[in-house]
Amino acid sequence: LAYDSPPLASPHLTQQPKMLASKSIMRRAAAPSARPRAAVSVSSRRAVVMQARRNEVSESYAKALVELANEKGKLEPVHADVDAIASLLSSNVALNELLMNPVVEDAKKRAVLLKIGQEAGFNQYTNNFLNLLVQKDRLPLLEEICLEFEDLYCNLTDTMVATLRSAVKLEQEQQFLIAKKLQELTGSKNIKLKPVIDASLIAGFVVEYGSSQIDLSVRGQLEKVSDELSRNMALQLA
After folding, report:
1. How many C-beta atoms lie closer than 10 Å to residue 80's C-beta?
2. Angle, to 10 degrees, between the axis of helix 35-71 and the axis of helix 75-91?
3. Are 167 and 198 in contact (CB under 8 A)?
4. How many CB atoms lie within 10 A of CB 120?
5. How far, in Å, CA of 214 to CA of 206, rounded?
6. Cβ of 85: how many Cβ atoms within 10 Å?
7. Which of 74, 113, 149, 233 is most buried, taking the most CB atoms under 10 A from its CB?
């Protein structure tokens, strides 16, 4: 009744709704807005969708090149070309930036890729493929295409890729013996070693394939000795 008939209401009753309303306004002002979260969520979903599309496009281009090279009996030389391209992209920052820069004219990119192909002796199918990527504005996907090509090649040829980390560069004969031993251990038809120099190993090497690892490095042996000493000390103190 006090709220419906202001003249008969007591001062305390008429002031309380104002205080409650004020507190309600303060709570709404202090409460974090849900919109930024929604915006972040939408942005994340878009990023995932865009990446999925990039992967699909990269896989389709890589598959087309694998199938063409295999059909023409040029899978091995084209695979060697793709390996060389991937290595160049990872080691040559200037080249990577030039090829991925949308401001650089296509003609210049073609000229650079042609020169690289001539100096490296790329197969004609590889050169044509690179020109197609320039024409279709797909050079930004080149690194991903190389990765997809590698996966498809390994599946097609029953090849296992293993990372060979060593303190110093190993001779070709040493790498051949390691690959042969891995072939016996895994039963894979082919073994592809990816050498990596890791001075922290001190000496020796580490082979990583699938979820397995063979550690024949000095650092690995030292860590094993250290672990064994730690276990013995823990048993003595227990």
Report:
1. 15
2. 140
3. yes
4. 14
5. 6
6. 24
7. 149
pLDDT digits (tens, 9 = 90+) for 73-129: 999 999 999 999 999 998 999 999 999 999 999 999 999 999 999 999 999 999 999
Cite the DSSP H helix spans in the chain: 11-30, 35-71, 75-91, 93-100, 106-120, 124-135, 142-157, 172-186, 218-237
Give the count of alpha carbons within 13 A of 150, CB side only.
Answer: 21
- The number of residues in the chain equals 238
From the number of C-beta atoms within 10 Å of its C-beta (0-12, 13-18, 19+), residue 125 rates as: middle
Contacts of 123 (CB under 8 A, 6+ apart): 69, 74, 77, 78, 81
- Residue (of 124, 118, 119) closest to 132 by Cα position: 124
Sign of CA dihedral 97, 99, 101, 103: positive
